[in-house]
Amino acid sequence: MAAIDAPRDLRLGWTTELIAAADGFSHGSAGRVSRLDRGWSSVLVSLDEPPLRLRNIGADVAVGDFVVGDEDGERVAHVLPRHSAFVRRASFEGNRAEAHTIAANIGVVVLVHSLASPPNQRRLERELVLGYDSGANPVVVLTKADIVDDPATTVRSLQDVAPDAPVLVASGISGDGIEELRSYAAGNATIALLGASGVGKSTLVNAHVGGSRMRTAVVREGDQRGRHTTTASELIRLPGDGWLIDTPGVRAVSLWSSGRGIEWAFVDIFDLMDNCRFRNCKHDDEPGCAVRAAIEAGQLDPRRLESLKRLVAEEAALEHEQRERLRAMDKRGVRRPKPR
């Protein structure tokens, strides 16, 4: 087992801040979580050594985290501060007001959509909110460019709801767009792929690593939906340098509490709001509403405004759930979880 004062393998993505945080502990090995399996973490201490297997007892761990093990080398003792984390609401019943961290310490979150399916603007809006709130930079990638004649219509449709995010076209079969996407991982940075099943994430991964590391499956002809060929998030080393986190297909994109994610994802509407006559304009029928004026002039799709209102209401309901959950925990004398 590597000593805590051993030189950090910078190829894992260590930063000055993370090294300083790890050096504050005098026990156990420090490394990066590459995979989670039923209460166990696979932790990379060095690319030249096999990963450690540490228990996650009492630790909130995600793939991509930097952690310090206990002195016995049996469990994760500390999770080092994250500089970014893609978090959504837990999707299983009974945990609606709890967070689920999909990937941590990422520089770019790649929101993957398929050109073989009709563009889903509403899903992308939700993903962008989570992407901006993660602290990473969102990039939209449209896959399966090898099976469509002209992707321009779909590209324009998704650009309309992603005004500040790059929208790229790629194919894991032909290799188009792969080098541009890989450039986001230069300098031992980390990118994370997120999207629904069947959009081609596993094929993209195989194109990046130059092999057939990830199993792929055919999608249904009727709706282009696929099966979950990726069953667990995994940190994958890219040729040369950099890291990629592949994640299982996410069917429901459930919001977690937002920082400024909604504001950044709907920056076009918020810019219009600054020009409304009244500060508390509801953008319904108030005089001097710049948002309604843009809709009437055909410059803003009214469905985008309705989507914004739904997401704001959903976020408010979630924050109410969280307050009620914390209040119930206080009544039962349960210790509150530490904020991350």
Ordered list of secondary-structure elements with their pairings:
Blueprint: H1 16-22, E1 30-37, E2 40-44, E3 52-55, E4 66-69, E5 76-79, E6 85-89, E7 99-104, E8 108-114, H2 121-134, E9 137-143, H3 152-159, E10 167-169, H4 178-182, E11 190-195, H5 201-209, E12 234-237, E13 243-246, H6 261-265, H7 267-273, H8 290-296, H9 302-332
Parallel strand pairs: 8-9, 8-11, 9-10, 11-13
Antiparallel strand pairs: 1-2, 1-4, 2-3, 4-5, 6-7, 12-13
What are the defining features of this structure?
27% helix; Rossmann fold; six-stranded mixed beta sheet; globular; alpha/beta; 13 strands; single chain; 3 domains; disordered N terminus; five-stranded antiparallel beta sheet; Ribonucleotide Reductase Protein R1, domain 1; 340 residues; SH3 type barrels
Structural class: alpha/beta
Can you count the beta strands? Answer: 13
The general outline is globular
As a percent range, the share of helical residues equals 25-40%
Structure description:
The protein is of the alpha/beta class. The protein has three domains: 10-79, SH3 type barrels (Roll); 103-246, 3-Layer(aba) Sandwich (Rossmann fold); 261-332, Probable gtpase engc, domain 3 (Ribonucleotide Reductase Protein R1, domain 1, Orthogonal Bundle). It contains nine helices and 13 strands. It has helices at 16-22, 121-134, 152-159, 178-182, 201-209, 261-265, 267-273, 290-296, 302-332; strands at 30-37, 40-44, 52-55, 66-69, 76-79, 85-89, 99-104, 108-114, 137-143, 167-169, 190-195, 234-237, 243-246. The strands form three sheets. A six-stranded mixed β-sheet has the order 10-9-8-11-13-12, with helices on both faces. It has a five-stranded antiparallel β-sheet with strand order 3-2-1-4-5, with no helix packed on it. The longest helix has 31 residues, at 302-332. The protein is globular, with a radius of gyration of 22 Å. Residues 1-5 and 215-230 have low confidence and may be disordered.
